[in-house]
Amino acid sequence: MPPYAAVLMTGRPDGACLVAANYFDTHRETLDGALAAIDSRGFWSAYPEVPSKRIYGEDARGEGMAAWKGRLGKTFGIDQPGVVGTVNAESSPYGIETNIDYPSVDLNQLLPAACVAMDSWKRASIDERTGVCLEILDRLNKRSFEMAFAVMHTTGQGFMMAFQAGGPHAQDRGLEAIAYAWRAMKACPESATWSKRVSKTETVTLQKTWRIVPRGVAVTVGCSTFPTWNGYPGIFASLVTGNAVIVKPHPGAVLPLAMTVEIAREVLAEAGFDANLMTLACDSFDEPVAQELVVRDDVAIVDFTGGNAFGDWIEANATQARVYSEKAGVNTVVLDGCDDVRAMTGNLAFSLCLYSGQMCTSPQNIFIPESGIDTPEGVLSFDDTCAALVQALDWFLSDPARANEVLGAIQSPATLDRQAAAKGAGGIVLRDGVAVPHERFDAARLSSPLIIQVDEGDTTLFEQEHFGPVVYIVKTASTSRSIEIAADGAKRLGGLTAALWTRSDDVIDAAVDAFTDAGVALSVNLTGQIWVNQSAAFSDFHVSGANPSGNATLCDAAFVSDRFRTVATRIPVPAPVEEAAC
Amino acid sequence: MPPYAAVLMTGRPDGACLVAANYFDTHRETLDGALAAIDSRGFWSAYPEVPSKRIYGEDARGEGMAAWKGRLGKTFGIDQPGVVGTVNAESSPYGIETNIDYPSVDLNQLLPAACVAMDSWKRASIDERTGVCLEILDRLNKRSFEMAFAVMHTTGQGFMMAFQAGGPHAQDRGLEAIAYAWRAMKACPESATWSKRVSKTETVTLQKTWRIVPRGVAVTVGCSTFPTWNGYPGIFASLVTGNAVIVKPHPGAVLPLAMTVEIAREVLAEAGFDANLMTLACDSFDEPVAQELVVRDDVAIVDFTGGNAFGDWIEANATQARVYSEKAGVNTVVLDGCDDVRAMTGNLAFSLCLYSGQMCTSPQNIFIPESGIDTPEGVLSFDDTCAALVQALDWFLSDPARANEVLGAIQSPATLDRQAAAKGAGGIVLRDGVAVPHERFDAARLSSPLIIQVDEGDTTLFEQEHFGPVVYIVKTASTSRSIEIAADGAKRLGGLTAALWTRSDDVIDAAVDAFTDAGVALSVNLTGQIWVNQSAAFSDFHVSGANPSGNATLCDAAFVSDRFRTVATRIPVPAPVEEAAC
């Protein structure tokens, strides 16, 4: 290897960054586990989802709660450029006073700082950047209880979901993105010897070296319901590939991402890099900053999770950037039959209640043939099937503690307005959506799911996303018609998940063809402790990118491989001995 | 595995397509070689670049020429939907009469046919689609002589370049794209068993299956200079991932891509698939069809090679599609010093003459410090360096046969107009660009390179692409200034290649940093049979995507992995024995 080859590879003759290299060694096993998992796609998790003392420590919950409480009523301190004031638009769906002031920023100061921060970061080795990102995730994992309370009291999730989806599951999704990005960057060697016989007497030999070049500044526009789970993949995929990341949280769910930025900046600084590789850009509902931010020339990547209106606007206007979007979709359920009515309705009722339909994977439209469904006891009529489902909901919500925990709170008052509007819009109300008291938080905003029965012709009612606790039961002419309407709707309106219950392999085959072509992940005959809403890191792709609900998939190669580029240098060197010999 | 798992994987209970499967087996070694090559990035080629009888057959050249001549003066026959007339805008830069009528199409018939064609193709297995694409490449390789004449008499390339770049090298680039796409599709298994312990007593086990889903109709907008070399990567990447491809050749260089479509349709039909997976959409300069085509709703992918104006328009308007572009750039040379002036000027002179600067990798601006360059014999003054370069060109062009073969012909009269305009625009003409007679074709359109000396302040002259035989020698204050101007220009205007000659490792380090950050592939101190214009499949990335010269890289994961999506189905199955046991 010529003397300057080592320099060419990293551009840093002064050698590797020891702290970052150590981080990589420390977390190498975690990375290897993730790399194996994305190949096998069997069950795997790096960060324990059980909030147990044994795993997280005897006092972890108490310390986490104390740390979270310690942030309330104060200004969120962050030492970054461009802080010009504070905003405070966050409130707990559980009705308690959080009152945290977050920094508002001047983009004209923040963006240049983000650009400068990439200078040393882009010269670090792939493993060094990966080590830093893995250390950030590890520290986030240790703070999972604090994060759980931050997520619970911004999104309205029940504690268990807030802990799991906001903590370990989000961390797993971040790790998954890092694993894909690491593999994508390693796909090209840092250097190679290219030797070609160009004539009987001459062999040309070139030393080729390749460097990873970041795209530029990445912006993550966070959502209000799963700020970390939806945010981490883009944040870590962009950071590990050499880009600087500006995090723009949803004004109503800031703390989880603000904590993330805080921890990331700590690790970056400790590793000797510019902490401005990760910065915070907060705004308010009255003075949003995202529209101005995402179209700036320096912004090369945008990750967006949220509604169609703004998502479509970003895709149409941020043409200077590579935009990864997760937008709305209408998720569907097709009931054709089942082996155990109670098991089916119990599983479905849980899916309908879970976080009050505020998951992008929550089912909204349930298609049931007018002729009823097939069961071992014979046909269960349409009306009896509806009644069985309502009964399952009644039973599920009859236990206040269970109802509180699973329903969670409604993140935004607008969601309750949507529910009220849906109630008045038409159809037969089979079960009303009513306020549900919370055992511990008097002012909490909870509601039971509103169940409305409509006919397949009432497309104006059910062929739109009613984000929140709104469920339509659609009476159809047949199961094949149910599949047709559901799949066609997903193609036109977007859709992330579909659930099917049936006793017929032919129906399964037809549904798989239809929903696969519509880009919808299909779950068949689920019972017990697994629900259609669930999307497991390392195994389930979240958002197919094959319908209008978004173009980004968590996680696949397409999600990471365009966040960096590879640039080569080639220099003649003496031919390898064996070549020279002949 | 549950009985329907096999069905779920491919959606084709009737089993695999035997012909396609056989193609895959036949060409498996070729694919394996390509997969190994994109990992090592050392020299490798699947298709021999030497037009020798021993390799291609005793009569290959004669048969190829006869086959090509047999097409002249006739209508190019193609049995595809939507053919409504003919267009004829092609002419040989060598001045001979070709006069081929090509089909003009009605997009309202062509697009639906392309959509329908994907129905069975998307259900084929990854290996089946790959086998078909490899068979197409194999047949194209066997037709390399016929292709060479088709490329020569549309692009104006000399015969040797037309054979190599139009044939084997283009086929290698296509194979490279197939290899990346095959790996990207195989990254997710077709099926997996996901088993998770959800409680002390319950384990949930799901059979998960994944299918590849194409994005939709892909359109390749061909260029006039390297229609196959620039076209094959996108064409084969889209086809192998399940999409239908509509090929829209440049009106002035139709035959090479028309032949490609013809051969692809033969193979697709023989394998039992819909030949309309690959169709031809020809147009004329007067009635272009590309603008209407690329914005159609059914078009999900666009591959474009050509000028900035139309490329920028497509990127701004074809927002319904994923656009991969290769646009213009200004390529640069920095002269700081060299160990052998004759070797350096000889190598550079060849690069300047090769295909008369009509390669997107051709150097245009040569930066030389006013203080001259460093040589073993001492400083060579600026004027003497210019003189040495001009002398090298004089010698090179002094042999008519050599000059004819290397210069090739000028593809478009507009290129000669640009040369004339550049001559009149300013600067000192060091060597005039003049008509060069061709030994065999009296009416051939040949020109020698125009060499103009300017100062670094004359940015309005040299900071734009003068596609064709126009070279600027820019006198700069210093080599560091040369690097600064060249790299900065690439960031703003785009640039694919840079060449540096120097005797200083410090200059190499500075140049590598500057050009890498500008997204430009740098070649250092080239002499002998290797030139900056050359981009080798399986080793050299063509277009970094890191500056305005384009967003597509031939080839990397980003170029292929977003041409398809992956959609899942999950169904409960009995827990694996070892799980059930515990």
Structure notes:
The first copy, chain A, is an alpha/beta fold and 582 residues long. Chain A folds into two domains: 3-87 and 102-327 and 550-568, 3-Layer(aba) Sandwich (Aldehyde Dehydrogenase, Chain A, domain 1); 332-524, Aldehyde Dehydrogenase, Chain A, domain 2. Helix content of chain A is 43%, strand content 18%. Chain A has 22 helices and 19 strands. In chain A, the strands form five sheets. In chain A, strands 14-15-16-11-10-17-18 form a seven-stranded mixed sheet, with helices on both faces. In chain A, β17 (497-501), α20 and β18 (521-524) form a beta-alpha-beta unit. In chain A, α2 packs across α6 (126-142), α7 (144-155) crosses α8 (159-166) and α9 (168-186) packs parallel to α10. The longest helix of chain A is centred in the first third of the chain and has 23 residues, at 18-40. Chain A is globular, with a radius of gyration of 26 Å. Chains A and B meet through α2, β3, β4, α20 and β18 of A and α2, β3, β4, α20 and β18 of B. β19 (564-572) of chain A pairs parallel with β18 (521-524) of chain B, so a sheet runs across the interface.
The number of helices of chain A is 22
In which range does the helix fraction of chain A lie? 40-55%
| Alpha-carbon distance between the two ends of chain A | 21 Å
| Strand ordering within the main sheet of chain A | 14-15-16-11-10-17-18
Structure summary, number of beta strands of chain A: 19
Strand-pairing-aware structural class of chain A: alpha/beta
What is the name of the CATH architecture of the largest domain in chain A?
Answer: 3-Layer(aba) Sandwich
Q: How many independent structural domains of chain A?
A: 2
Task: Describe the global form of chain A.
Answer: globular
